[in-house]
Amino acid sequence: MSHAHPHHDHQGAAGHHDHSHDLRGADKTRVLIAALLTGGFMVAEAIGGLVTGSLALLADAGHMLTDSIALWLAWYAFHLADRPATARHTYGLGRVKTLVAYTNGVTIFAIALWIVYEAVVRFFDPGPVLGGPMLVVALAGLAVNIAGFLILRGGNRESLNMRGAILHVLGDLLGSVAAIAAALVILATGWTPIDPILSVLVAVLILSTAWSLMRQAAHVLLEGVPENLDRDGIAGDLSAHVEGVREVHHMHVWSLDGEKTMATLHACLLDGTDPHAAVSAIKSRLATVHGIDHATVEPEFGACADQPPRHGH
Question: What are phi and psi of 164, to 5 degrees?
């Protein structure tokens, strides 16, 4: 399966920028080729589904339609992510990728629910299905999806956007396998209810992958702490290892796009500590030990500037 763990191959912050741009360019090309493949075949499969009367083919074509749209959006998201930050978008447009990943998840979810509904209707009122032509179309679909999967699998699987694209193609691949199985059963036995039954199986598989993608993308969009990091643990580590730091509070850790991690914090310093040296040491430790390459640190002596002054003081 294509589920790469989000944080295998954990590099230090310095090595990350050198080749991430080149990787993104390659990923962009991979997604474009997959979008063209999927979009082209989706039309053929939809026609095949209508001609043969197969829901399994129509379900796969419907999924390929969202796939094709999703892959085009993923390509556009890579395109936007390369643009520099502006006065209006001060973090750049990298998060568009996460937004697209979330939208992809929602679309697949809706399509899968439609397949389940249509399958229930067809199960109780099965229509004729042409097994031979259905098998031919499903085999061609499998070949196209395997090609798309192999092209995307070579890309950066730490990227939520790339993983979203892979999930779409993987769902299609399963859809084609189910359509092939249904066609073989229909050819061998003439039992057409196998067609809606297998389309429901595909829908259930699609639903579970879409849910996990939506959950991860939503976590990033809600500024959640990345799953491999412990906010309180990092604050404690800074207090323990950076000289002159008494305590760290008001700490926020979040990910911009599922890959780049940011932090803001207040550092309470002991009297006599050089604030510049302490801030530099904190930033250095965050980058090298915790992989947080963009941090804003507010040094403090005595009372915290964000706490309201007590009456009488």
Answer: -60, -45
Cα–Cα distance measured from residue 77 to residue 97, given in angstroms and rounded to the nearest whole number: 5
CA distance 287 to 185: 57
User: If pLDDT is split at 50, 70 and 90, which confidence band does 24 have?
Assistant: low
Domains, the chain, with CATH or none: 13-221 (1.20.1510.10), 231-300 (3.30.70.1350)
Query: Cα(280)–Cα(268) distance, rounded to whole angstroms?
Result: 14
Residue 238 burial (CB count, 10 A): 23
Q: Is the pTM above the cut of 0.85? A: no
- Tokens 């002159």 locate to 244
Please give the Cα distance from 2 to 91 (Å, whole number). 30
Provide the pLDDT confidence category of residue 253 given band limits of 50, 70 and 90.
very high
For 40, what's the count of Cα atoms within 13 Å in the CB-facing half-sphere? 10
Confidence of residue 219 (pLDDT cuts 50, 70, 90): very high
Whether residue 247 contacts residue 268, with contact meaning beta carbons closer than 8 Å, is answered with yes
101 φ, ψ to 5°? -60, -40
